[in-house]
Specification:
Layout (H helix, E strand, L loop, with lengths): L1 H13 L8 H19 L4 H5 L5 H25 L3 H15 L22
Helix pairs in contact: 1-4, 2-4
Length: about 120
């Protein structure tokens, strides 16, 4: 992740784009690219959307748009000083507390004792 972030920083610096890579501009660009990803799926049925990656042309577009979204997200995180992996881990932890598994024992209990399954 750090290597990709550094490559993006160097790419922008070599082209003298830093003045334009403000948090507002990067957030705007991220939104535009997410919209372009959504456009691929806009009028598809759920079944068609599930099969998008089977079509080589559409799959290529999806991969390109995912890359664009990810690139702008990394650049945004760099601009505002957010470690995206740390932020995601913290958010997952908060969501686990906010949205407990239905029927799971309360905190401190062994969730898997009855089912015999192991956590993944």
């Amino acid at each position: 992740m750090e290597g990709l972030r550094q490559r993006l920083t160097e790419f922008a610096a070599a082209r003298r784009w830093e003045p334009f890579h403000t948090p507002k501009n990067l957030a705007s660009a991220l939104t535009v690219e997410a919209g372009e990803l959504l456009e691929i799926f806009q009028w598809l049925t759920p079944e068609q959307a599930s099969a998008v990656m089977a079509d080589p042309d559409r799959a290529h577009r999806v991969r390109d748009e995912v890359a664009d979204v990810f690139a702008y997200l990394l650049q945004f995180c760099t601009a505002v000083g957010v470690d995206p992996l740390t932020a995601l881990a913290a958010k997952i932890e908060r969501n686990e507390l906010r949205f407990p598994v239905p029927g799971a024992p309360s905190e401190g209990g062994d969730v898997n004792s009855e089912s015999g399954s192991s956590p993944v």
